[in-house]
Write a structure and sequence with these properties.
Helix 13 (401-404) links the parallel strand 15 (391-394) and strand 16 (411-417). 36% of the residues lie in helices and 18% in strands. The strands form six sheets. The chain has a seven-stranded mixed sheet with strand order 14-15-16-13-12-18-19, sandwiched between helices. Strands 9-8-7-10-11 form a five-stranded parallel sheet, sandwiched between helices. The protein folds into two domains: 15-23 and 46-263 and 488-496, Aldehyde Dehydrogenase, Chain A, domain 1 (3-Layer(aba) Sandwich), CATH 3.40.605.10; 267-469, Aldehyde Dehydrogenase, Chain A, domain 2. By secondary structure, the protein is α/β, with parallel strands linked by helices. The chain has helices at residues 50-69, 72-88, 90-101, 105-125, 164-175, 189-201, 220-226, 242-254, 277-289, 306-321, 342-349, 351-358, 401-404, 420-427, 443-452, 526-537, and strands at residues 15-17, 20-22, 29-34, 37-46, 133-134, 141-149, 152-156, 179-183, 209-211, 235-239, 260-262, 267-271, 299-305, 361-364, 391-394, 411-417, 432-433, 437-439, 459-460, 476-477, 495-503.
Length: 539
């Protein structure tokens, strides 16, 4: 078990720019503190200025020609080295991740393993960056297509998956020949620093991966996006809120670039009258309260068919009351720990007023966990961090703010419906479309759900959360702009297609104008043929 220090750690880390650990003179510093114990300081980092971010972009741009010219199979081998380095350090990196942002150790190991899996998948893609040969309509002429890298890619990621989500962006970007400037979350800078150092160890050349630390708005994250306006970036990839994603889309649009936007969700989990209720309860419990609800794929609305509503509600409520909560570094048997930061907690806390204003009924939950206000399953010191009660609402209907808005915390709503048609209508009655799930044993309902749901991802008899490195991840509507992470689909986000027209005829050939199209002969009539046969054969 990782032991936290009672004294703040004084080590200061720098930005990683051009292969150097850069600590700018006079930079504003911020500390990385454990989300589970705010007195536990892991390290100190500089806030990147606009000049620091610009320097990182220029270092990346200088490294681009050489990296682009590196054969794709060689780049793939380096990706393989990255995966093996992460696998070697999996346990240490998982424990650091758990200590820094207070994910349970089981989840932290899964977070790191996702990066290992991503490397395993993309190593072989270095030998499969296929183009096509296309037949020409002209003689002595070859047509072919190639994937080409975009250039300098800016990446901004959130703190709830500080290894998995960055790997979804960084690994395919590097494999396809791009160079990267990454602004990780200020909530997990030491985990991000360690992750980047493993990439360097694996053979990523200086300047190909650059890391700048700091905040988002009016800080390093915003400065990085604005490098699009300075023509120092050719691509931005972002994981975070829909509001920020819309702004990034505007900046990218005026620069005629296509951003990768992985945004929020208000994900429906439907329980039909024929479902295995016990299985559905376990799926809903994990989808709603795993990681303390701090996932973009967390279940927001539990849409339950009327005939099983009471049974499902009562079993879910009993399961919620048995949840164990506490600092995962000190208590390995907890389902979830504290909020990643105070900002997330304050945002979540506000939803209690929404529910009261909407007229919803609070079945369980009492806001912040304190010494005098703690559920039976809480362990440890509630004042060491920001902990929230697992919260359950009922009487929630489409149109309510509680129904529509992402809460990003340990809260879920019960929505009662009657039949499949009402269930699918409720599931689609939000402005998001990231993840979705249905519990049913009726194959026609399962088929209709996957056909009619407005979401980028759907589970049948499983929770709304979860991802695999070889499957596309992303949403529709307010959850994204159609781009996808992971699998072969992500390659479209980090490459453009070049079509090559190679004419070896030695003369100018004009397609469509000089093409020697075959001329049709006299029209042939099947009717005349039959008529002629009838005369000869006497038919």
């Amino acid at each position: 078990m990782t032991q936290t220090s009672s004294q703040p750690t004084c080590q200061t880390y720098g930005h990683l720019i051009g292969g150097q650990d850069v600590q700018p003179q006079g930079a504003v510093l911020f500390q990385s503190r454990s989300s589970g114990d705010l007195s536990d300081v892991l390290g100190t980092f500089p806030e990147a200025s606009r000049a620091d971010v610009r320097r990182a972009c220029e270092a990346a741009r200088a490294a681009f020609p050489r990296w682009k010219a590196t054969p794709a199979p060689v780049r793939g081998e380096i990706i393989g080295h990255i995966g093996r380095a992460i696998a070697r350090e999996k346990e240490a990196l998982s424990r650091l991740l758990s200590r820094e942002m207070s994910k349970t150790l089981k989840e932290a190991r899964g977070d790191v393993q996702e990066a290992v899996d991503t490397c395993a998948f993309f190593q072989s893609e270095g030998r499969r960056l296929y183009g096509q040969t296309v037949p020409s309509e002209m003689p002595s002429k070859e047509l072919k297509t190639y994937r080409r890298p975009l250039g300098v890619v800016g990446i901004v990621t959130a703190g709830n998956f500080p290894v998995a989500v960055p790997s979804w962006k960084i690994i395919p970007a590097l494999l396809t020949g791009n160079v990267v400037v990454w602004k990780p979350s200020e909530d997990a800078p030491l985990t991000s620093y360690a992750f980047a150092r493993l990439l360097e160890e694996a053979g990523v050349p200086d300047g190909v991966l650059n890391v700048v630390f700091g905040g988002g708005k009016d800080a390093a994250g915003q400065f990085l996006v604005e490098m699009l306006d300075e023509r120092l970036l050719q691509k931005i990839a972002f994981t975070g809120s829909t509001a920020v994603g819309r702004w990034i889309g505007e900046v990218a649009g005026r620069n005629l670039t296509h951003p990768t936007l992985e945004l929020g969700g208000k994900n429906p989990l439907v329980v039909m009258r024929d479902a295995d209720i016990d299985n559905a309860v376990q799926g809903a419990l994990w989808a709603a309260y795993g990681t303390g609800g701090q996932r973009c794929t967390s279940a927001g609305n539990l849409i339950v068919d009327a005939p099983v509503y009471s049974e499902f509600r009562d079993k879910l409520l009993a399961a919620i009351q048995s949840i164990r909560i506490g600092n995962p570094v000190k208590h390995e048997d907890v389902l979830y720990g504290p909020f990643i930061n105070e900002r997330f907690f304050r945002s979540w806390e506000a939803h209690y007023a929404w529910g009261e204003e909407d007229g919803a009924t609070l079945l369980y939950g009492q806001g912040r966990i304190t010494p005098g206000n703690r559920p039976a399953g809480f362990q440890g010191d509630p004042e060491a961090a920001f902990y929230g009660w697992p919260t359950l609402w009922e009487g929630v209907r489409p149109g309510m703010r509680l129904f529509q808005n992402e809460v990003f915390g340990p809260t879920v709503n019960l929505v009662k419906v009657d039949g499949f048609d009402e269930a699918i209508a409720a599931a689609n009655a939000v402005d998001y479309g990231l993840s979705s799930a249905i519990y049913t044993n009726d194959r026609s309902w399962a088929h209709r759900f996957q056909e009619e749901i407005e979401a980028g991802m759907t589970s049948i008899n499983n929770s709304t959360t979860g991802a695999e490195a070889h499957m596309p991840f992303g949403g529709t509507k307010g959850s994204g702009n159609g781009t996808r992470e992971s699998g072969i689909w992500v390659l479209e986000s980090y490459t453009y297609w070049q079509g090559v027209n190679d004419d070896i005829s030695g003369r100018l050939q004009l397609a469509q104008m000089d093409t020697a199209y075959a001329q049709p002969r006299e029209a042939f009539s099947v009717g005349r043929l039959l008529s002629g046969r009838s005369e000869v054969d006497g038919i």
